Amino acid sequence: MNQLLAKEVQQKYIETFKVEPLLIFSPGRINIIGEHTDYNGGFVFPAAVNKGIVAGLAKSTSGNCTAIALDLVSTVKFDLDNLKPSKEGSWENYVFGVIAEIQNRNKVVGNFNIVCKGDIPGGAGMSSSAALENSVVFGLNKLFDLGLTKKEMILISQKAEHNYVGVKCGIMDQYASMFGIENNALLLDCRTIESVPYKINFKEYQLLLINTNVKHSLSDSAYNDRRSVCENIAALLNVETLRDATENDLEKIIDKVTPENYQKALYVIQEIARTQKAAKAIQQNDLETLGALIYASHNGLQHQFKVSCNELDFLVNQAKKNKHVLGARMMGGGFGGCTINLIKRTAIESFANATSKAYENKFNKACSVYFIELSDGTRLID
Ligand code: GLA
C-alpha cells in the first residue's frame, strides 16, 4: 500500500474537517483467468494488489455529508435522507449507491464525511470502482458499528454498482478486493462465493500489467448486453446459469440462437473449464500450460465473446512474438484497460521497452507498464 497516499488523505481530511479520520485501504485486483464467468456462476482467479483506494472517514456534525475525491478534485455535498443517483458516470454514485444499499438493509448510517484518493487509474480494468465501494462500506461499517460481515459488505458493494452505477457486474471484483490474501490468488467459485487461496510464486516468471490507457465508451452497455445474452441462453437451456451447461447441451439448441450468441455462450463454458485447468497448472507449477490457457482466454474474449479492442489485441500480439512471454490476455470487462502477461523476469525490461515503442508508433499514444504485488484485502490502516 502506498503510504504517501494515506498521509495525503489524512492531511487533507484533518485540514478540511478538523478531526482525525479512520483510514481504510481497499485494493484493486488483477485476474489471472476467468473473465465474464462470474455472473455465469463460474470460476474466476483474481488477486488483490498493492494499489487501490485510500479513504478517510469520520462522523460529521454539520448536519450533512461531504465526499471529496482528491484525484478528481471534486467535492460533493449530500443529504442522507434524499439520496438519488447523480448523472451517469459520476464518481459519487459509488458512494451514494453503497449508502443506499446499507439503508435498504434497515441499517442506520449517520452523517459522515469522506475523503478518498487512489493510485489505480479508472478504466484500467483493475476495479478501482470495487475498491471505492468496498472502502466506503467497510469504513461505514466501522464508523457506525453496523455489524456487517465481509460477505454482506461485498454484496452491498455489488448492488450499489447495479442500482446506482448501472453496471450489472458479477461478484469477482468486490470479492477479490475485500478478501485478498498477500502473495495469493483466489480461485473463486462464484456460485457459492467461496474461494481457495493459491500461493503465487512463479520463480523466474512473474505477472506484469500493461495498460492500453484507453476505455472505449460503449463498455458499460456492452457489458450489460453480454450478461443478458448469457442469461437468455441459460434460460433456453433450462439451467440457472451457464455454469450448469456443457458444450453438448449448447449444441442441442444451436438452431435457437444466433451464431454470434452461440459463440458467446460457448466461450463462457470453455472459459470456466480453462480457469479450473489453470488452477491445476499453478498447483503443478506448469507455467507453459498456464500461459497457453491465458492466450486461449484472450482468443475467446477477442473472437467469441467480442469484448476486446484493437489496442488490447495489439499488446497481446506483441507478447506472442516474444518467447519469454508464456501468456497474455486482456483483463477485466474489456474494451480497454490492461493486459496481464506471464513473463520471464529477466525479459521484462526489453519487452516493456519494445512494446511501448511499438504501441506508440501504432496508436500515437503511450501505454503504461505496472508492476504489482499481490496483497491483503480491504483493511484499516493503523
Ligand atoms: C468487470 C465486472 C466483473 C467481471 C469482469 C469480467 O470487472 O465488474 O464482475 O464480470 O468485468 O470478468
In short:
This protein is an alpha+beta fold. 42% of the residues lie in helices and 23% in strands. The strands form three sheets. The protein has a six-stranded mixed sheet, sandwiched between helices. Strands 10-11-9-12 form a four-stranded antiparallel sheet.
Tell me how many strands there are: 13
- Here the CATH topology of the largest domain equals Ribosomal Protein S5, domain 2
Shape: globular
Oligomer: single chain
Which CATH architecture of the largest domain would you pick?
Answer: 2-Layer Sandwich
Strand arrangement within the widest β-sheet reads 5-4-6-3-1-13
Spans of at least 5 consecutive residues with low confidence:
none
Tally of helical runs:
11
How many structural units, i.e. domains? 2
Q: Structural class per helix/strand content?
A: alpha+beta
Measured as a percent range, the helix fraction is: 40-55%
Biggest β-sheet: count, sense, barrel?
Answer: 6 strands, mixed
* Strand residues, percent: 15-25%
Rounded radius of gyration (Å): 21 Å
Alpha carbon gap, first and last residue: 12 Å
Q: What is the H/E string?
A: HEEEEEHEHHHEEEHHHHHEEHEE
Determine the mean pLDDT: 97
Instruction: Give the names of the bound compounds.
Output: alpha-D-galactopyranose
Assigned CATH class of the largest domain: Alpha Beta
